[in-house]
Amino acid sequence: MADNNVKELTTSDAPVKARGLEGVVALESALSSIDGQKGELIYRGYNINDLAEEASFEEVVHLLWNGTLPTQDEFETLRSELQSERALPAPVMDILRNVPDDAHPMAVLRTAVSSLALYDEEADTMEPDANRRKAVRILAQIPTVIAAFDRLRKGKTPVSPLDHESMAHNFLYMLNGEKPGKAAADIFDICLVLHADHGLNASTFTSRVIGSTLSDMYSAVAGATGALKGKLHGGANREVMRMLLDIDEKGADPAAYLRERLEAGEKVMGFGHRVYKTMDPRAAILRDMVEELSEEEGEMKWYEYSMAVMDTMKQETGIDPNVDFFSASTYYQLGLDPDLFTPIFVLSRTAGWTAHLIEQWADNRLIRPRAQYVGDRDRTFVPIEGR
Length: 387
Prior knowledge:
Helix content: 55-70%
Strand order of the largest sheet: 1-2-3
CATH topology of the largest domain: Citrate Synthase, domain 1
CATH architecture of the largest domain: Orthogonal Bundle
CATH superfamily of the largest domain: Citrate Synthase, domain 1
CATH class of the largest domain: Mainly Alpha
Largest sheet: 3 strands, antiparallel
Mean pLDDT: 92
Oligomer: single chain
Shape: globular
Radius of gyration: 22 Å
Number of strands: 3
Number of domains: 2
Low-confidence stretches: 1-12
């Protein structure tokens, strides 16, 4: 796995400084690869376009955790394991019942993930088999947390998880209290595939830093959830939908609306990427899904708004959309509230976070970068009575 183009620094080498760690290779991973110039994303060697079209989310989970796509028997085993761990411990459900109705969904989810550790006897057991079992539990229970919280805050009774069906189908069932249509479940499943992993992004790096200290999986996933909460990371799709809803409410021309925001120096979420220099391949897949959903519903405005904003942004700035831009209108047309968009991102990305933790612990080294001191030196100490 060694890359001959990556310089290994010794303790005698001058430290490398890069704002935001841009361009710095911090570790090696066999999980996913991004080619920013070509606009290509692969998981374990498979192109994201092929996986989105052909593979279920559970198949992708197996791929990330084990390095291979599952056989039919392996698929059935993993799906059965995930289905059997969906129910929440009663005390965690009590926590969800007692959070304020206006609590930030990501704060609730972060708290719930942390609390799940209290009721897992293997929480601090670090053997590989135990870590895999914890990965199954966390991934299986996060959808239940999200759905239960959303129903409780709306004065509804939580829906118990199914002991069958896919994760995508089960989540939509728990959220809405009714069996989802096949098209909705299939589209949501593709969304989960697209968000499952994406290199060493901020939340994944957070999880690996925590994991490198030999802390537990729950701590690492809770920390990653906190990182994903930020609007410069996982919270961007919520901001995109707010923009589209604002355009609709004002009856504004999307192109004129966008130019006005740009002229005012406002940041437009859902565009640009630290790695991609062309359109995010996931955005291209979601763009087609938004169009398909719009045509099926006979309501094209969200697709038309999105395309007008995208085209104008490209004309004015040369910047392409990222995955957050089209995931917003996709989720909205599936009937999901905008403030659930980022928790759903967690639902999917937990597959990648736990895979990265498993990979980290297979050959662990504490992640400990340096900071360049830019403060004062040689200051004279004055006793408190003389200050």
